[in-house]
Amino acid sequence: MPKVEIHAGGGKKVLTVSEKTPLSVITAPYGLPMPCGGNHTCGKCRVRAIGQLSPLSEEEKRLLTPQELADGLRLACSAEITGDCTVFLPESGGAEQVLLSGAFQGAETSGWGLAVDIGTTTLAAYACRDGEVVASAGQRNCQSPYGADVITRIGAAQPELLHQLITTQVSELCQKVLGDAAAPKDVCRIVVTGNTTMLHFFRGYDPAPIAAAPFTPHSLFGEALPASQLLPAYENAELYLPPCISAYVGADMVCAILSSRMWEKKETALLADIGTNGEMALWHKGELYACSTAAGPALEGACIHMGMEAAPGAIDRVTPGADGELCWHTIGEVPAKGLCGSGLVSLINCLLQTGRMDETGALCDPEEAPDGCGEDCVLVGDSGVFLTQKDIRQVQLAKAAICAGIHTMLDACRLSPEQVDTFYLCGGFGSYLEPESAAGIGLFPTSLKDKVRVLGNAAGSGAAMLLADKYRKTARKLCDQANLIELSASPVFMEEYVEQMSFETE
Fold it and tell me: Which of 302, 441, 468, 469 has an alpha carbon within 20 to 30 A of 360's alpha carbon?
């Protein structure tokens, strides 16, 4: 049987595998990005592999440049092992920590507890004591190789495997934060939140019905159970899974609403968690409205040529220099590796404001991509990072969906953006986002930019609040009273979606 030598994170491991095993099988445990879920469309699962491998596929010939092929790069989703070989994983493909976003708001709890937010891209865990966060940690979701978005991940048709992966990762991450906090391992309460699909995977339910009409999930949760059923290390703990509003407005949004405390105020407040699935909520005259729009993974970097998550090396801000050169800043102030969502928005706004891109999204003076990808592009200064014309089109689709969703939800209440008192932004993308840039490209109405309040990881914050019983009643009440707005059936949404496709703003 073939032997595979894997080099990753400065270490080496040798595996024995069956002949014709896809490279993706052995790279999956290392978190190698595969946003398309192995459908051979994104080209992100590049690895350097030498030795006995299957001939180049048509997808590899199309997605890899001549130079990349000469350097021994292969697509893990396409290449199969036919004999002994060596695989070199990229530095960013390991289990590196991702940054946790924003300020954390503690809850009124007593004793030790754990709050976990299972995001589609990132996991965050918090060790809490008496309402304060003592330690926190974040990691890339280990399910990421099976798709960047929930629909692709459901389509992987491996619910049992994805259940096992996520429960193991949650357990290990919880142990890590408890160790960092020097906390007792036998905590009393654990709250795990996430969108409806992520909670299905965690609970062990098949999420397939979520992906097809009539989009009826197995459960909308709001349940407490012995933690040992899913997390064997916690024999004496209670595990609480917060309630979801619908198949696409999940418990993470309920927790974010809870954390914002918009439900305690008389103001008109809008809350948005902008990502692959843009979830939004509106609080107006004591009524809660909620909707979800499929923005796609562009704003999280998944379908962008040099896109990446908000991790060290990601360009998160771009500004025009005095000489017209694009000036850039990276998370961690380390050499640039790619563009995260906030950097993508910042760059496009910069191009728009300086006239290097017109309102239709067309580059006015395109350059040739340095890797020879064959597309028009713009270089981000001397960073080595570039943005292609196709990337811009992906952002157009995403921002149109988000802004159209906001307008549609406001229209349902006969409100204009000017009548919103506070605009809450949460999640990793929202926490790094520059309101001026976001409004500049039309991600949300310009009249909201001065009303932005960043909440950070509001889902994690709300999960910590749910360690206390009194907030569980509030969460249930919010779900029960929520008015769900189905954008797919709304003529207003379709009209707004077309209109918001342009980068022309108010």
Answer: 302
Q: For residue 332, which of 92, 41, 75, 74 has the smallest C-alpha distance?
A: 92
Positive or negative, the CA dihedral 172, 206, 257, 311 is positive
| 91 pLDDT more than 70 | no
Domains identified in the chain, total number: 1
Q: Which residues contact 488 (CB under 8 A, 6 or more apart)?
A: none
* Domain membership flag for residue 64: yes
Indicate the SS3 state at residue 293: strand
Is 138:115 a contact under the CB 8 Å cutoff? no
Q: Which domain holds residue 88?
A: 3-93
Q: Which two tokens stand for residue 23?
A: 């490279």
pLDDT recorded at residue 99 = 46
- Mean pLDDT for the stretch of residues 465-485: 94
**C-alpha to C-alpha distance for 473 and 249, rounded to whole angstroms:** 18
Question: What is 318-384 written as a DSSP string?
Answer: EEE-TTSPEEEEEGGG----EE-HHHHHHHHHHHHHTTSB-TTS-BSS-EE-TT--SSEEEE-TTSS
Residue 73 lies in a domain: yes
Asked whether 348 and 395 are in contact (CB, 8 A), the reply is: yes
| φ/ψ of residue 374, rounded to 5 | 80, 15
H or E stretch at 253: helix 251-260
Query: Going by C-beta distance under 8 Å and a sequence separation of 6 or more, which residues neighbour residue 203?
Result: 163, 219, 221, 230, 241
Q: Walk across the sheet containing 386-388 and list its strands.
A: 367-368, 376-379, 386-388
**Any domain includes 330:** no
Classify 61 as helix, strand or coil.
helix
- What residue type is 243 in one-letter code? P
For residue 19, the domain's CATH number is 3.10.20.30
Q: pLDDT tens, 335-373? A: 998 998 899 999 999 999 999 999 999 999 888 777 666
